[in-house]
Design a protein that fits this description.
12 strands; alpha/beta; 7 helices; about 30% helix; six-stranded mixed β-sheet
Length: about 290
């Protein structure tokens, strides 16, 4: 009887280990072969302090982190572009990291994808424009030139003003390496209307809140790329918001999980997305 108990426990333990290994392998296979290519549309509402009533409901598309490379095929980006156009947004934001760039010889070759990345995004158009910023994987010359050649407005520590429904909206974009509050303040200097900040890294929420910016749009996190049930997005815990809507003081933020992958060509519990974000008017609190 004692021996039977030992055998039973041994069999159960082996079965449990086998099941665990199978789940890990199966999840990795699912994330590699299926989920990372399953581009979807995420919809959200973003409250913006001081947004004019006329701009309430303005629909902004955020397409970010395409990472066109050997690991991210053109078909995934084409699907993202197609879904974005089907949504007919009022304006479009391109959030950076159009290619993948690293320090080893294997990833340096991905710089050749710069032109192709811009070409894949070229069909994007919206009534009030397409505005692009750069991410940490983008160079400061070839990528902005390629995007500008497609008619996109590239904001590198720059600001522009658009008039929509008779109301002005300031759109400011910063480079990934622009982090200090005083440097961001220079970009915003002179802005008199409600301001939206485009910042690849969602950690810029802290500086934006200090400057009383209405809203921030970001990417960079990939939503964690791999989200473990019961644990969460381990690789993205250093960010104030990993995905979706967040807020600090009077400043709201939306962070998109993006399209592509880096380091490992896998997504799990975190499908690629394009985001359609509706701006909502919110009164500025009296302090």
């Amino acid at each position: 009887m004692h021996q039977e108990g030992k055998v039973s426990r041994r069999v159960l333990l082996k079965g449990a280990i086998g099941t665990s290994v199978g789940l890990v392998v199966g999840s990795a296979g699912y994330g590699y072969f299926y989920e990372r290519h399953r581009v979807q549309v995420t919809r959200a509402s973003l409250p913006v302090s001081g947004l004019p009533e006329a701009l309430n409901g303005l629909r902004v598309a955020l397409v970010t982190d395409t990472h066109f490379s050997r690991s991210v095929p053109a078909e995934d980006i084409e699907a993202a572009v197609r879904l974005t156009l089907q949504e007919r947004p009022d304006l479009i934001i391109l959030g950076g990291d159009y290619v993948t760039w690293g320090g080893d010889s294997d990833t340096k070759g991905d710089r050749g994808y710069v032109g192709g990345s811009a070409e894949l995004l070229a069909p994007l158009t919206a009534p009030h424009g397409v505005f692009a910023i750069l991410g940490n994987h983008d160079d400061d010359r070839d990528m902005p030139e390629a995007l500008t050649a497609k008619g996109f407005t590239v904001l590198r520590d720059a600001r522009t003003r658009v008039t929509i429904r008779g109301e002005p909206l300031e759109i400011a974009g910063i480079r990934f390496w622009t982090r200090r509050v005083e440097h961001i303040a220079r970009v915003l200097r002179g802005a008199t209307a409600t301001t939206v900040l485009l910042a690849h890294d969602p950690r810029r929420l802290f500086e934006a809140a200090a400057l009383n910016v209405g809203a921030v749009f970001s990417g960079h996190t990939h939503g964690g790329q791999v989200v473990v049930p019961g644990v969460g997005a381990i690789a993205a815990r250093r960010f104030p918001v990993v995905a979706g809507v967040g807020q600090r003081e009077n400043t709201s933020i939306f962070v998109s999980s993006g399209i592509g992958t880096v380091y490992l060509p896998v997504r799990f519990n975190c499908p690629p997305e394009i985001a359609i974000v509706a701006l909502e008017s919110r009164a500025i609190p009296i302090v």
